[in-house]
Structure of 6-phosphogluconate dehydrogenase, decarboxylating:
Amino acid sequence: MSGTAQIGVTGLAVMGRNLARNFARNGFTVALHNRTASKTRALVDEFGGEGTFVAAESAEEFVAALERPRRLVIMVKAGDPTDAVIEEFAPLLEEGDVIIDGGNAHFADTRRREKELRERGIHFVGVGISGGEEGALHGPSIMPGGSTESYASLGPLLERIAGKAKDGAPCSTHIGPDGAGHFVKMVHNGIEYADMQLIAEAYHLLRSVAGYSPAKIAETFRTWNTGRLDSYLIEITAEVLAHTDEATGKPFVDVVVDQAEQKGTGRWTVQIALDLGVPVSGIAEAVFARSLSGHGALREASASLPGPTATPLPEADAARFADQVEQALYASKIVSYTQGFHQIQAGSEEYGWDIDLGSVAAIWRAGCIIRAAFLDRIREAYDARPDLPSLLSDKQFAEEIGAAQEDWRAVVASAVHQGVPTPGFAAALSYYDALRAERLPAALTQGQRDFFGAHTYRRTDREGSFHTLWGGDRSEVANG
Ligand code: 6PG
């Protein structure tokens, strides 16, 4: 006997609760379950008027409440808790039913779970959900993986509750099989880290080199948010910087401990990029900047190291410098997204996912933390040329970054001379210059590797690999 609920949500912490409410507000009958049953009752008591909920006290009741094929969303902590909930429900499900994991799971776990459950006739869909608690309630960006068959059943519901881009398109699409959805969500978070780091560096420069107050910097970000940097992260940065701490009357940003934390998805992005051989230096510098900020004792022990202290520019020069910082921020942002999309491309090839990069950019236009007008440009670039080798191969992006690079270089140079750390801006510029370079010093690296490890090298003038007899007459031998 099957129930009437088109979707069920188990795990009613804030994200799960808001997702359930979003489904109900959009006209779906939603089965509810939580390990602590009082949370289920509390949701219905407080929000029961928003739609049709079926509160279940037990796993059996919850499953019985679902129409066939059953669609069961798990919203619990990534890792073992997710495995435990899968094991609680899988034995109660039938062939063709769908378990959806809406947590920030590691894509490798999702691939394992999808394979195991597929062998039991059950679809497993790892779904990246971005936009935080507000997004879950009002319309997140949704990145589902899993089989095309499961998306046929699940997709219409996700597209209904997803955020909508300016052209009305839902910010949800089938990313690709098995772990593709969670992989793309991971890279989304990596790009988020890079975006946040670049904004932090722009703030740091405006504060210490332009000599702007947090309130004035907020004003500057508000202005930038009306142009090509228009994005959620720029918008909230202005709000955070404009905020005054009630207890002290000081700028909020000045009473916050300057040690950034991280739940870990940005770290995963870099770890996987290292395995894939994809240089995501912007994301890596963002992760390391957060880690460095957290080493309080090390920073204290290093505070007396010699080096310049930034001296604010005269007002007229400060305004010009702020314009240059906008150029550096935008150019570095183009590089970070170039690197992130390169990683998605590499992951898609490695795992055979055939991910459409234009579609990924399209569903990041609204609902997610990195939502920005800029993503429409990326969508257009990939839609025009799906085989684009790199975002920097897009004519318009190449022109924009070319127009920005003089100011970008001036800002990085100023930061270096003034002693302001800008690992994101500098790494992005080095990546850009390395891509452009006719010859890289990697030739010397190959010579060194051959000298101490006989690791061989290739030549520019003929095929094959070679080794020089460094310890002997230094003659060269072909190495097959
Ligand atoms: C999102 C966010 C979210 C992220 C938290 C914590 O897309 O809604 O990226 O998934 O996990 O904001 O992120 P940290 O890694 O910075 O702690």
About this structure: The two ends are 68 Å apart (CA to CA). The CA atoms of residues 211 and 392 lie 33 Å apart. The first helix runs from residue 14 to 25. The mean pLDDT is 97.
